[in-house]
Structure formats: structure tokens, C-alpha cells
Specification:
The protein is mostly helical and 177 residues long. The chain contains six helices and no strands. α1 packs antiparallel against α2 and α3 packs antiparallel against α4.
Amino acid sequence: ENERSVSLSPARSAIGALMLATVPIADLAGALSPWHVLAVAFGVGCGFCWFDAAAWGAFFRIVGKSRVARANSVVWSTEIVIEIAAPAGAGLLAALANPSAVLAVDAVTYLISAALLAGLKTDLNTVAAGRRMWSEIGEGLRYVWGMPVIRTLTIAGFGLNMAVGGVLGLLVVHADK
């Protein structure tokens, strides 16, 4: 009755692309406002949180149990390289081009993501029969709590993310000083 499924659909990436595309379109029309940019940033940020959770939920279905370790290694290695290179590349691109054009390029990456998701042959939206979302969450929390190393890393990661979020939030407020 209260079942949920992994929602990693191409439509969600297309919606992200559409939200991002409104910024360069509004800029070209001379109608771009700070509130518009904030609304798009909020929408894309929320969409990313749901998308990322769904992606990790679908991870095992995509790679298969036998390839989890190798796939996890590739995912994290790629993410580390991208986290180093992407901000530098985006900063350079924003310095050389209109920031709205940078967001237009980002909108295209969302469309590429939608196309790649549409090409997946694995059914990502199936929930195991009779399993409810809350029981799965409870099972995961019991597992994390029962593994001291994973529990410690999870708590440390949560604390780090809270601290970094606070610092970045204050950085924006005090950037002009």
C-alpha cells in the first residue's frame, strides 16, 4: 500500500534541463532576475538530491552484484576527478563567456543524461514484492548502526556536510567583504 519505487527516469533529467534553460532564455529576453536564478538553483538542487538518491538506489540493478566493487571504484574515481576539474573549467568558462551560456551548456548535459537513462535496458522502477519503503529504510539503518566503521564514517560524513554547508552559506553572505 505504501510502496515506493526508484525514480530514475529520463523525464527528471529533462525537467532539470528545462529549468536550467530558462536562465539563458530569460537573460536573452532581458527578463532575468535574481529571484529567477534562486528559484532555478533551488529546483535544480532539490532535483539533484532526489536524482542522486535514486541513482544510488538503482546502482545494484544497473551494474549487478558481481561488479559492484569495480563499478563503485570507477564511480568514485570519476567523481573525484570531476570535482577537481569541473569547478575550474566552469570558472574559466564563466570568465570567458556569459554565465547564462555556461548554464545553457549545463542544460545540455542534463539532456545527455536523459538520453543515456533512456538507453538503459534494466528496469529501474521495480520494487521487490511486498517490501515497503519504511521497512527498507529501517533495514538499512540497522545495518549501518551494526557496522562500527560504516556508522562512524556516516556520522563523520554527516557532520562534515553540515559544516561545509554552513560555511558555504556564510561565504555567499560575506563574499563582498
